[in-house]
């Protein structure tokens, strides 16, 4: 059995350095064991919180496109027919033209009015530019939040994945311990029958056997629970049968300066905090925009005439164009715009504090993770040596007991020592904390 105490902590440290959208391995086929990459990929497809973050990221990206489109001219093709009751009088628009009945409403142009025009509208103002900046910041923040959700999911999958693996190994340890307890009980019973051991030795061996049976039941239950916990993330049916791949040698630990450099450029918490700061600044600019003028431009081409035709009954041209420019200058809104500017500045200041806090948290978490990974990897060889020594000690102590040179308590103590060493080697789970 290969020790993997340092594997989950190293994996959690590497979450700091994972780029977004990394390539996943192909899906497992048939009954092939599930690798850690397979587990992460399956969890990303099934976990609802990550799915919600992914959907929000896509939606915000579309909002960003809408904000940019708001800076561009809009084009419409307007068609309308307007009928107005006649006032039963006649009017001639120009000498030689046919007389027309006048509409009863003075605001309308004719009894029958046809409008078919293509219009181009454009509004120039600082509000549109600020809206684009705000949408850019929100998109960057949403992308960072998606990466935070992904890394949190990765950390969860790593922990559950190694829980499953360690559960299987602890179950194997419990089975071997029960076999050893059964064998030792058989030895004590034979020695008692031969008059070489007291009945108390048999009772002690039987108590040890019963304890190993309970430990086996507990290990089996824990193994099933770990499998279900991971299965909830991986499969539509959490009871799906699966196995995890065999342990490989833990990856070498990168140098601390390399990890720090990568974390500073690839940390989603800091990116999210910076995006929130930029969003606050854009909100301030958007509030200022309410105090600046807006210029609205309009160009229309088509007909607006009593006939749906390019030319009127008298041969006059109905088609034509019109253009307008409107400048709206804000004068007084009871200081609402000024208050909104102050509100945005207050929130922007809070965002600056959040950026500084995220940077401090990064440095602390990075040192903590790196130190844990360093200690864990240094302990790998020690755990292997402890298991080897414990096995040899149990073998020699049992042999000495068989020859009447040791007591039953020494054998039981050697058995307990081996179980403890093998359980430690099977990994007791990563330290639970957030990812950087």
Fold and architecture overview:
- This protein is α+β, with helices and mostly antiparallel strands.
- The chain has a single domain (6-73, 126-292, 335-425), classed as Outer membrane efflux proteins (OEP) (Up-down Bundle), CATH 1.20.1600.
- The protein is 61% helix and 13% strand.
- It is built from 9 helices and 6 strands.
- The radius of gyration is 39 Å and the shape is elongated.
Keywords:
9 helices; elongated; disordered C terminus; two-stranded antiparallel ribbon; 436 residues
Q: What's this entry about, in short?
A:
With 436 residues, this protein is α+β, with helices and mostly antiparallel strands. 61% of the residues lie in helices and 13% in strands. α1 packs antiparallel against α4 (126-193), α6 (256-265) runs antiparallel to α8 (336-402) and α7 packs antiparallel against α8.
- Indicate the CATH architecture: Up-down Bundle
Mean pLDDT: 85
How would you describe the oligomerization state of the chains in this entry? Answer: single chain
* Rg over CA atoms: 39 Å
Order of helices and strands: HHHEEEEHHHHEEHH
Terminal CA distance: 32 Å
Number of domains: 1
Return the CATH topology: Outer membrane efflux proteins (OEP)
C-alpha geometry: elongated
Number of strand elements: 6
What is the H level of CATH, i.e. the homologous superfamily? Outer membrane efflux proteins (OEP)
Instruction: Tell me what portion of residues adopts beta-strand conformation.
Output: 5-15%
Largest sheet features? 4 strands, antiparallel
User: Please, how many helices?
Assistant: 9
Sheet with most strands: strand arrangement: 1-4-5-6
């Amino acid at each position: 059995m290969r020790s993997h105490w340092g594997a989950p902590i190293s994996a959690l440290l590497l979450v700091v350095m994972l780029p977004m959208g990394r390539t996943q391995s192909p899906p497992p086929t048939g009954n092939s064991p599930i690798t850690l990459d397979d587990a992460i990929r399956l969890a990303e497809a099934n976990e609802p919180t990550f799915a919600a973050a992914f959907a929000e990221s896509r939606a915000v990206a579309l909002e960003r496109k809408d904000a940019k489109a708001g800076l561009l001219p809009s084009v419409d093709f307007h068609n309308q027919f307007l009928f107005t009751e006649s006032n039963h009088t006649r009017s001639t628009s120009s000498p030689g033209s046919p007389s027309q009945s006048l509409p009863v409403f003075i605001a309308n142009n004719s009894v029958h009015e046809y409008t078919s025009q293509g219009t181009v509208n454009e509004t120039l103002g600082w509000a549109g530019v600020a809206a684009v900046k705000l949408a850019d910041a929100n998109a960057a923040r949403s992308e960072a939040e998606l990466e935070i959700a992904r890394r949190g999911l990765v950390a969860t999958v790593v922990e559950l994945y190694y829980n499953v693996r360690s559960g299987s190994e602890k179950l194997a340890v419990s089975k071997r311990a029960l076999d050893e307890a059964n064998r030792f009980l058989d030895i004590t019973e034979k020695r008692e029958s031969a008059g070489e051991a007291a009945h108390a030795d048999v009772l002690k061996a039987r108590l040890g056997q019963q304890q190993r049976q309970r430990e086996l039941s507990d290990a089996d239950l824990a193994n099933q629970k770990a499998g279900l916990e991971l299965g909830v993330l991986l499969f539509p049916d959490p009871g799906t049968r699966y196995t995890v791949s065999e342990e490989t040698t833990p990856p070498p630990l990168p140098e601390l300066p390399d990890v720090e450099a990568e974390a500073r450029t690839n940390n989603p918490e800091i990116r999210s905090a910076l995006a929130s700061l930029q969003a606050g600044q854009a909100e301030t600019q958007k509030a200022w925009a309410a105090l600046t003028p807006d210029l609205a431009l309009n160009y229309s081409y088509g007909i607006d005439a009593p006939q749906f035709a390019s030319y009127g009954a008298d041969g006059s041209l109905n088609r034509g164009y019109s253009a307008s420019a409107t400048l709206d200058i804000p004068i007084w809104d009871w200081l609402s715009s000024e208050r909104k500017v102050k509100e945005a500045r207050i929130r922007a200041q809070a965002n600056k504090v959040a950026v500084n806090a995220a940077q401090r948290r990064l440095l602390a978490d990075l040192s903590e993770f790196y130190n844990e990974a360093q200690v864990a990897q240094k302990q790998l060889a020690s755990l292997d040596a402890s298991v080897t020594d414990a096995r040899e000690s149990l073998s020699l102590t049992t042999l000495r007991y068989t020859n009447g040179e040791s007591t039953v308590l020494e054998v039981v103590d050697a058995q307990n020592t081996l179980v403890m060493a093998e359980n430690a080697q099977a990994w007791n789970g990563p330290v639970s904390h957030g990812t950087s």
